[in-house]
Amino acid sequence: VQVVESGGGLVSPGGSLTLSCAGFGFAISAYSINWYRQAPGMGREWVAAIFGAAGTAKYADSVKGRFTISRDNAKNTVYLQMSSLKSEDTGLYSCNVMGAYWGQGTQVTVSS
Question: Is the Cβ–Cβ distance between 103 and 43 less than 8 Å?
Answer without folding.
Answer: no
